[in-house]
Design brief:
Layout lengths: L2 H14 L17 H4 L19 H7 L2 H4 L13 H26 L22 E9 L4 E8 L6 E8 L10 E5 L17 E10 L2 E8 L8 E7 L2
Antiparallel strand pairs: 1-2, 2-3, 3-4, 5-6, 6-7
InterPro entries: APC4 (IPR024789), APC4_C (IPR056358)
Pfam families: WD40_APC4_C-half
Protein name: APC4 protein
């Protein structure tokens, strides 16, 4: 705070917060805080005691700047209005700014394809969360958009890869496929097919050609093995 700020606060306290012992036992307002309260009133009326902006560095800077004085990028200042009034003005401007992009984006979005992934019961209360780990990736080199996800009820050892061309008029081969981990990490072909089964905890694209997955051993035992694997998308 500058010395000017401290002086202003001290003057305000001296003027409006004088001791009044005869009012201490009364309920209600003891002090005159109109200079503070006027800023918080949700009204469009002018302030009772508008602030003195003389000597304000920001206003002097704007006044002396040819380019900023009339700039539409600066939010206008209302020295005679409360903060509620300014807040409503700002919300109106923001809503106006967002409305046009929302309309344009909304009209440009349309359904490109519909795929049935799973069916659930009619009762919404008993419907479990089956769709998990959705991760999006956009390959700008080949203009392919990918979605990684798992479906818990179907098979927790599978990860699904959905891919679409960014140009919705074009299609790609194997639009959706599943990768099953199972026991592919077994050390030898002699191991039991059920001895080392893995499920996917998480999956993200590492780059355009590689998918990183975190796997967990499915066997119910202490010290379950965790594996961080990088799989080539090909």
């Amino acid at each position: 705070m500058t010395q000017k700020d401290i002086t202003f606060v001290a003057d305000f306290l001296t003027e409006h917060f004088n001791e009044a012992p005869e009012l201490y036992n009364r309920k209600g307002k003891y002090f005159n805080v109109e200079r503070v309260g006027q800023y918080l009133k949700d009204e469009d009326d002018d302030l009772v005691s508008p602030p003195n902006t003389e000597g304000n560095q920001w206003f002097n800077f704007l006044k002396n700047s040819t380019h900023l004085k009339e700039s539409p990028l600066l939010f206008p200042y209302y020295p005679e209005k409360s903060l509620h009034f300014v807040k409503r003005q700002m919300e109106g401007v923001i809503d106006q700014c967002l409305q046009k992009p929302a309309d344009v984006i909304g009209k440009s979005v349309h359904q490109a394809v519909c795929m049935s992934l799973y069916k659930t019961s009619q009762s919404e209360d008993s419907t479990p969360q089956l769709f998990k780990l959705p991760f999006l990736w956009n390959d700008k080199t080949s203009n392919i958009h990918y979605v990684l996800f798992t479906i818990l009820e179907n098979s927790i050892s599978k990860i699904y890869i959905l891919r679409r061309h960014t140009d919705t008029s074009r299609s790609v081969s194997n639009g959706i496929l599943a990768v099953e981990f199972g026991n592919f990490l077994n050390n030898s072909i002699n191991e039991s097919s059920d001895s080392r089964c893995y499920t996917c905890l998480d999956a993200h694209f590492y780059d355009d050609e590689t998918v990183t997955v975190v796997l967990k051993e499915s066997v119910e035992q202490e010290g379950k093995e965790r594996v961080l694997a990088q799989l080539p998308l090909s």
